[in-house]
Amino acid sequence: MLLSKSAQSVQDVLTKKGIEAKVVELPASTRTAEEAAIAIGCQIAQIVKSLVFRTKQTNRPILVLASGVNRVNEKAIAKSAGEEISKADADFTREVTGFAIGGIPPVGHKQKIETLIDEDLLKQKELWAAAGTPNAVFSIDSEIIVNLTDGKPISIK
């Protein structure tokens, strides 16, 4: 089955990095963690929410990979970033990642983005992440997400 251009770009990045993960496009939306868990048939805690923030002083993008069950405490993200942050808008998100909100993968962005990983994700064995579109996903072992994304595990709560 052929993947959409965005989903194929994520598959290409995974393949290039030697990750044996298969991007699939589902008939149901995976835009929210709840929708993704239902469509995939997994626990919400296994869903990787990709949220982009923007630092207020230096305008840096920060990607937060959060467990689907957790809310992000922006103060914890700001502390890790070393400055105040705000949620990135759709234009900024697409500009720095190359993807639209609702389908942002943890890898394959237009530019290198500082990545913070919810330490609760590392308690799960298998994770499911967006793959470039609101209905494309891939499964990944939690043991490799830190190296794959060059991310920093933190408490986001």
What does this structure look like?
The protein has 157 residues and is α/β, with parallel strands linked by helices. The protein is 28% helix and 25% strand. It contains 5 helices and 8 strands. Strands 1, 2, 3, 4, 5, 6, 7 and 8 form an 8-stranded mixed β-sheet that branches. A hairpin with a 5-residue loop joins strand 6 and strand 7. The N and C termini lie far apart (39 Å). The mean pLDDT is 96.
Using only CA atoms, what is the Rg? 14 Å
Q: Encode the helix/strand succession as letters.
A: HEHEEHEHEEEHE
Major beta sheet, specifics? 8 strands, mixed
The averaged pLDDT comes out at 96
Indicate the low-confidence ranges by residue numbers.
none
Please tag this protein with its features.
alpha/beta, 157 residues, 28% helix, 5 helices, eight-stranded mixed beta sheet
Summarize this, please?
By secondary structure, the protein is α/β, with parallel strands linked by helices.
Describe the protein's topology.
Elements: H1 5-16, E1 24-25, H2 33-40, E2 47-55, E3 61-67, H3 74-81, E4 85-87, H4 90-97, E5 114-118, E6 126-130, E7 136-141, H5 142-149, E8 152-154
Parallel strand pairs: 2-6, 3-5, 5-8
Antiparallel strand pairs: 1-7, 2-3, 2-4, 6-7
